[in-house]
């Protein structure tokens, strides 16, 4: 299959002053350096999603909320996802969990990876994301990118991620290689 998978980099925080912009821009740069993937940023700030309030599970009924429908239509354009993950209380942000809940079939049978940041690189949040995504029928890459400890603190303060990227490039390549492989596999399977 020669089609480049179209991947959304989902910015999973809406907090003012968020680190997510820095992490998302760096990940977008990494995808643009490749010739086997097309990626674009998808910012949850651009979607006024209500707290999930549908009449039933989206696996069984269609959404009625106009903003949720707009979100679902946007997600349907993509063959995979890269989640930019902050860790709040050992899990994903509430806004990211809500955004995941606002769609169902648009996530299913599509791969994802993550770039997490924080004290331990959002490792616990990425693991929680994997559990949620499995329930949505998604395929996780084994590798994910984690910006943690002193690297997180220094790049949150005044350094660019490029100053610490030597330690991130190997796992980023592995995660994106897996994402592309799974995207092609799931695209072929969905087409068949």
Task: Give an overview of the whole structure.
The structure is a single chain. With 192 residues, the chain is of the alpha/beta class. Helices cover 40% and strands 17% of the residues. It has 6 helices and 6 strands; from the N terminus they run βαβαβαβαββαα. Strands 1, 2, 3, 4, 5 and 6 form a 6-stranded parallel β-sheet that branches. The longest helix has 23 residues. 39% of the residues are buried. The mean pLDDT is 96.
Structure in a nutshell:
The chain has 192 residues and is α/β, with parallel strands linked by helices.
Alpha plus pi helix count: 6
Q: What is the count of β-strands?
A: 6
Percent of residues in β-strands: 15-25%
Estimate the global geometry from the Cα principal axes: globular
Rg, nearest Å? 16 Å
Please mark out the parts with pLDDT under 50 across 5 or more consecutive residues, or reply none: none
Mean pLDDT: 96
- Indicate the structural class: alpha/beta
Main β-sheet: number of strands, strand sense, barrel status? 6 strands, parallel
Terminal Cα span: 13 Å
Secondary-structure element series: EHEHEHEHEEHH
Helix content class: 40-55%
Task: Give me the secondary-structure topology.
Layout: E1 6-11, H1 20-32, E2 38-43, H2 66-76, E3 80-86, H3 94-101, E4 111-118, H4 123-135, E5 139-140, E6 145-148, H5 149-157, H6 169-191
Parallel strand pairs: 1-2, 1-3, 3-4, 4-5, 4-6
